[in-house]
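User: Batch of two.

Assistant: Item 1 of 2:
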Amino acid sequence: MSIRAYARSWGVSHVAVLKAAKAGRIPLEPDGSIDPAKADAAWDRSTDPSKAKGTAKPAPKSTKPPPEAMKPVAEAAVGSVRETLKEQGLPASGSVTFVQARTAHEIAKAHLARLRLQRMKGELVDRSRAIATVFALARRERDGWVQWPARAAALIAAELHVDPHRCEQVLESHVRRHLEELSEIGVDLR
């Protein structure tokens, strides 16, 4: 069947059929003609139902496209759609339809828009920057404690009337032991 004849059968312009063929939405035969059975099935599979015109004829229910006409979809993409739908409490069993994929896409866009808005409002921070800041604060805190016995030992020794050097050694050993205990605390940075 010619491109123009096929376009008339669907009630669309021949330009729409050419665009669909160029985009890989419908297959062309080697001679440039169209096999209506293959093209009808491919057209239905790849057409967004929300943009379909009412004048288009429905594809026959009993014909199934040959396996070579179907493009395989990466399992990761199908899994991503299923996961997104399940997170929202929507059904995601069996084969994934165009409507389900479109729904998952819209959900993902909404999540992304919410994250951008939260970042603009200052409610969301960059993870790597936050980790670096916490690390720097912890290091400053640790360094302050390591230096504290040398500064405080003389004052404590004067109040207790003990040897300042021995007082510094005792304070330093207790501070280091305490810092070691603190370093064993596990932090989950997921």
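Item 2 of 2:
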Amino acid sequence: MAMKIRLARGGSKKRPHYSIVAADSRSPRDGRFIEKLGTYDPLLAKDNENRVKLDVERAQYWLGQGAQATDRVARFLEAAGVVEKKVRSNPKSGEPGKAAVARAKEKADKAAKAAEAPAAE
């Protein structure tokens, strides 16, 4: 059975509240889970101690049993010092999209033509 430590969404519309749960990876996001490990309230300030509450011992137990943490939960576990910080690198996230590249090229061409026009006269 493939285990995941992940977030299960609760709360009302536009007022999310998440439970950190250990669940079978085949079960739905908000469906059946094996154990509740903590809570996450994204509406609280980042420095608020109640933003993330996590039972570290049980999380370590499930990780020892082979459970895989999702990216967001892995960040919580890194902040708690349970797992080592993973190096994340997404060099493509800083690159402009196709439309922005096209606009920049068009602007550069226009500037080059404007610079040539007074020099020709």
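Residues 5 and 22 are 4 Å apart (CA to CA).
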